Amino acid sequence: MLAVDDAPGDRLTRPVPDVRARATAAARAAVEKQGAEIVVLDVGEIISITEAFVIVSANNTRQVRTIVEEIEASLKRDAGPGPRAVEGLDDASWVLMDYGDFIVHVFLADTRAYYDLDRLWADAPRVEWEPAAHAT
């Protein structure tokens, strides 16, 4: 995922080139279904299991599921792979979509406030991104 061995015993790590683009595409897909308080965090320097987190809030479980479906469909339309795993759809208060190089967290607002990943990962830089412009 991250590491490239340039020489024996010398380990060089680099992010996958399209991680930022795919994570922000997931954020834009969440916007399409009225996801709220969307942040993209660059966690690659802090943890070794992934490069980015996308964190999204929703008003109810139906919206959580709708956002999850839109993210998955949108990323597949862009010819990307589907998630490795999706956890939490039964309860839909916190759905985790594991894409390997980034992870999407879709929360009910109260659940997000309770777990407060934003505070937990406050040291991670926020990735600047813009919602897609709508064609007029």
Could you explain the architecture of this structure?
- The chain is an alpha+beta fold and 136 residues long.
- The protein has one domain: Beta Polymerase, domain 2, CATH 3.30.460.
- The chain is built from 4 helices and 7 strands.
- It has helices at 19-32, 61-77, 109-115, 117-120; strands spanning 3-7, 10-13, 36-42, 52-58, 85-87, 94-98, 102-108.
- The chain has a 5-stranded mixed sheet with strand order 3-4-7-6-5. The chain has a two-stranded antiparallel sheet with strand order 1-2.
- The radius of gyration is 15 Å and the shape is globular.
- The N and C termini lie far apart (39 Å).
- Mean pLDDT is 86; it is low at 1-16.
CATH topology annotation: Beta Polymerase, domain 2
- Distance between termini? 39 Å
The figure for the number of domains is: 1
The DSSP helix count reads 4
Apparent shape: globular
> Which CATH architecture is right?
2-Layer Sandwich
Structural class: alpha+beta
Mean pLDDT: 86
Query: Could you spell the SSE succession in H and E letters?
Result: EEHEEHEEEHH
Uncertain segments = 1-16
Oligomerization state of this entry?
Answer: single chain
